[in-house]
Amino acid sequence: MRNIPRLLLIIVCLWLSLTSFTSEESGFNVAFSQGDIGLAIIANSKGAPTEISLSKLKSVLKGEQQRWKDGTKVTLALMKTTTPIGDEIAKRLLGMTSKELNKYFLAQVFQGKMSSPQFFDSEEDLIKFIKNNEGAIGIVGSKSTGGLNPILVDGKKTF
Amino acid sequence: MFMDKKILVLFIGFTFTQVIAQIKDKTQIRGFMDIGGKYEFQKKDNKIVNDKLSFLLGEQDLFITSDISERISFLGESVLKYDASSGTKFSISLERAIFKFNYYGNHSVFAGKVHTALNYWNDSYHHGRLFFPTIGRPELFNQTIIPLHTTGIGLTGENLTDLKIGYTFMAGNGLGSTDILDNNVFKSYVAAVHFKPIAGLRIGGSAYFDNIDGTVHAHGGTGGILVNKITKQKLFSGSIAYFKNKFEFLAEGSTCENSNDSIGSKITNAGYVYFGYRIKDIISPYVRFDKINYQNGEMFFTGANIEAFAGGIRYEMSYLTVFKLEYQYKRSLTKAASGPTIYTNNISFQIALGF
């Protein structure tokens, strides 16, 4: 029992050092957060449907559907959660914080239940990826669809 | 002719580099590691047998995923961990190596070494302490009641219909076999089904059947008495998991029947219940209760009857860094009537990392 104070002291030191490390990281994320970003769903011409329900879209984004109806593999293309759009997608579409979404994808891949989504820093790169990869689907700001026709979500082009 | 050969070599070289580049793009290597410390105070029949603080290295887990083609994927997981029997005191073990062919929709056929899809914990967390809601595995897994790994082939499906049904059916080398050779003619069979009726909730059930050779110890363990008789094992498990809206609930139970000509039929019941509550998304206090009960006369499992309580707090600093602090009380009662009762109190911390 005499070792308990020593252990507690070590734990408190660890806690304090790790807490100071993460507060900086939280600040980084907060600086990026914005609200009310118009989003549009874009996809490669092969695979994805031209219209989708919001519930189905959420399911696709969570990696629950591995193939489109024509058999093409679903490939997710998403903005990194450190970008305003990535953060917005996590919160508005999937009801998770950025941290939760990253952990969710890591866990799903670790369990072998889905392929890792492709993450991008810029919408230009994401659009280029979607154009070049059959079955790819992604989300961009409603003003930057790169000439691709947005998929209607519950009948709407943007949401 | 010479030019043709040169062009052919260039063409092959170009194609090869393109293929390698594509595979490289779709191959990921990730890893997990945990380090920690434990203060243990242990009493055996009212005599103190342990009273010290230790720091410890956990497992370094490397996992590779690769989309080899549109329908073929590979997942490999290898672990470096402390091993007293090794000359370097560390050993490498191949925990998972799974070839998967997605033949239709969400249905796939797989082959290789997997974590047996019997329980939520074993099917979801594997060796990634980063994902564990508590510091260690529940006692159900520590006591070798669950066959953690199986090498074989099977069918699996995920998120079928609106109920999001998932299934795994598998045949594998039975208990006591190696990853390259079955030790007898019997195969182990796994059937597991789960469904997710609402977001965050998963309900599952599974069955495992094996005829175990008389020269084999319990699931991956080294304990147990060699009964020299073929033991028929039937293992049934059920689980309910709910992780949503700040609430975390996970309950699993297994009942195992071992029967042979010597011991007759003996039942082991084991399970645990976990509750957690997320505060401000990063801090989660939690508790877990474990209970294992072996029927008198059970010979295949040597573990003691266990009652344990764990309470702790989990602090998620980022999605790749989790700090846990936990107290555990455990009472172990050996099966022999005259055997000792061991009381253990642990205070542990763990830093679990992903990279």
Describe the model.
Chain A is built from 5 helices and 6 strands; from the N terminus they run αββαβααβαββ. Chain A has 2 domains: 1-32; 39-153, Periplasmic binding protein-like II (D-Maltodextrin-Binding Protein, domain 2, 3-Layer(aba) Sandwich). Helices cover 44% and strands 14% of the residues of chain A. Mean pLDDT of chain A is 83; it is low at 19-35. Chain B has a single domain (29-58, 102-354), classed as Beta Barrel (Porin). A 16-stranded antiparallel β-barrel of chain B has the order 1-2-3-4-5-6-7-8-9-10-11-12-13-14-15-16. The termini of chain B are far apart.
Q: Secondary-structure map with pairings?
A:
The complex is a heterodimer of chains A (159) and B (355).
Chain A: H1 4-32, E1 39-43, E2 51-52, H2 54-61, E3 75-79, H3 84-93, H4 98-110, E4 118-120, H5 123-132, E5 136-141, E6 152-153
Parallel strand pairs in A: 2-6, 3-4, 3-5
Antiparallel strand pairs in A: 1-5
Chain B: H1 2-25, E1 27-44, E2 47-67, E3 72-82, E4 90-104, E5 107-115, H2 120-124, H3 139-142, E6 149-160, E7 165-173, E8 187-195, E9 201-212, E10 231-244, E11 247-260, E12 264-277, E13 283-294, E14 305-318, E15 321-333, E16 341-354
Antiparallel strand pairs in B: 1-2, 1-16, 2-3, 3-4, 4-5, 5-6, 6-7, 7-8, 8-9, 9-10, 10-11, 11-12, 12-13, 13-14, 14-15, 15-16
